[in-house]
Amino acid sequence: MGQNEVLFERAQKTIPGGVNSPVRAFRQVGGVPRFVSRAKGPYFWDAEDKRYIDLIMSWGPMIVGHAHPEVVEAVQRAAETSFSYGAPTKGEIELAERICELMPSIEQVRMVSSGTEATMSALRLARGYTGRDLIIKFEGCYHGHADSLLVKAGSGLLTFADSTQNAPSSGGVPQDVVKHTLVLPYNDVAAIEEVFQRQGDQIAAVIIEPIAGNMNLIQPSPEFLSAIRHLTSKHGSVLIYDEVMTGFRVALGGAQSLQGITPDLTCLGKVMGGGMPMAAFGGKKDIMSKLAPLGNVYQAGTLSGNPVAVASGLKTLEIVSRPGFYECLSGQTEKLMAGLKQAADEAKIPFAVDSVGGMFGFYFADQVPTSFEAVTQTNIEAFKKFFHAMLDEGVYLAPSAYEAGFTSIAHDNEVLNVIIAAAGTSFKKL
Q1: In the annotation, is 270 catalytic?
Q2: Which one of the listed residues 137, 152, 186, 270 is annotated catalytic?
Q3: Which percentage of the chain shows pLDDT scores above 70?
Q4: At a CB cut-off of 8 Å and minimum separation 6, what does 216 contact?
Q5: How many domains does the chain have?
Q6: What's the predicted TM-score (pTM) here?
Q7: Annotation marks residue 142 as catalytic
Q8: Can you give the residue range of the structural domain that contains 346?
Q9: Given 43, 46, 137, 242, which residue is catalytic?
């Protein structure tokens, strides 16, 4: 028995399913999870010391590569002065100022420790600000595991849940909670127009992944985004951009800078902490001023603005702000997708690809899907076989057909060539 199997067997005795986040269990693809022992640049090594090219990069945050020496140094320097104070620091102000500078829609920002905290708090704030209860989310979008958002949710829930319309995607979520959540199809303009016509004055907020990454990579149509922005403005609802995944990942100003949309609130995470547990939500000053201690919407956290995470985030944002960073990252990701597509075409496998910045999606289908329903129609069995063939070749893909993939600035041409060659071999096995 290999070391990964030994560890997985041992983990299952004290950790439910042997993992601390469901998708890591390899349930959709089958097989034994790889237990990571270390990582550097575009690679990680498992418990058996086998090296893999990493194409999830901790689900996005490791945009400058694993263990970047400048980030490591910043973290070490911060750690020497203690790990946590539970009191304000100068670093928090610097990070807040930098975020507001890079995303002009954010006038004020509150730091938290996870993407789930950011979205949960943003929704509570939107409800407190508007005095309304209803929220709209979109099918296949995942906004963390807060109760009211676990309805037809994406990410690991697509692997595990049997969702019916407006039924909770998770046990332990009361129907009473999700009755305030309306779920609409992604990219369906008519559906959102109809709901606003019927219940516009009751809708507190619309929350959206501006580029969905939790049902694989799905891009919104300009008409869809335009309709949402117009309707929320007209009816006094809060538009929340969940950029936990896309913020500083697809562009320096996030997806909103590419789409020309100014949301009312934005949720951030992943990249802004450089891989440390850190997230934030922010937006218009008149909305943010409803937060305690100024207003009556309560939110708190001992580890919010953690000094070590702040140091990691500040240094990461400094690196990604350097000239040419995103041009290089986007170019490499596009090159990778073109290479995979060519390898699939040569093997006569129906295959489509898409990418934005350092985020990508590939689909065993004739064309790129535009909705959750379209993603479920792709060839999931082919994906499972491809996943394991690539794993054997030393390339680690997301262990689910419902997750986007991620590159880093460390994925240079040499690394891309190895991935594309591995794909050529793997497609032939399908």
Answers
A1: yes
A2: 270
A3: 95
A4: 361, 362, 363, 369, 375, 378, 401, 402, 403, 404
A5: 2
A6: 0.95
A7: yes
A8: 3-67+323-427
A9: 242
